[in-house]
From TrEMBL:
EC top class named in words: transferase
Assembly information from the UniProt record: Homohexamer.
Organism expressing this protein natively: Allomuricauda ruestringensis (strain DSM 13258 / CIP 107369 / LMG 19739 / B1) (Muricauda ruestringensis)
The protein's name: Phosphopantetheine adenylyltransferase
First and last residue of the signal peptide: none
UniProt KW Nucleotidyltransferase keyword: yes
Pfam family, one: CTP_transf_like
Alphabetized NCBIfam families for the sequence: coaD_prev_kdtB, cyt_tran_rel
Catalytic reaction equation(s): (R)-4'-phosphopantetheine + ATP + H(+) = 3'-dephospho-CoA + diphosphate
Site positions for Transition state stabilizer: H17
Role this protein plays: Reversibly transfers an adenylyl group from ATP to 4'-phosphopantetheine, yielding dephospho-CoA (dPCoA) and pyrophosphate.
Amino acid sequence: MRRALFPGSFDPLTLGHYDIIKRGVTLFDELVIAIGINADKTYMFSLEERVKFIEEAFKDEPKIKVTTYKGMTVDFCKKIEANFILRGLRNPADFEFEKAIAHTNRKLSEIETVFLLTSSGKSYISSSIVRDVIRNGGDYTGLVPDTVVVKK
């Protein structure tokens, strides 16, 4: 079975993430979307909200599973028997950063990283930009799937 892990904080899930997931799921038998838990990081959305945003967005896709994890991504890949890590690239800076992580992961394990370029119309979207829009009362709805709802 070709199982891939798509790790991230998904704070929140964006249309860029959605694009990579929809295209990535066609490449694998199963795609596990894994929300990493970092106790040192402050999130805008709770872990439960982030899980719900993703589960609702992909409720009709049986090849997608949603979970959470702590620790190193490669260790979690081993635990769930994932052979691939899926990552999205928006720009050259993403590539350089992700390349270093992919090389490190490859050194630590046999995990292959598969990169997909984000669709051009979504390459400017990042979770940090979405959070800034939300914090400042802007209209975030064109940047995230309909399942992402900000409580007022």
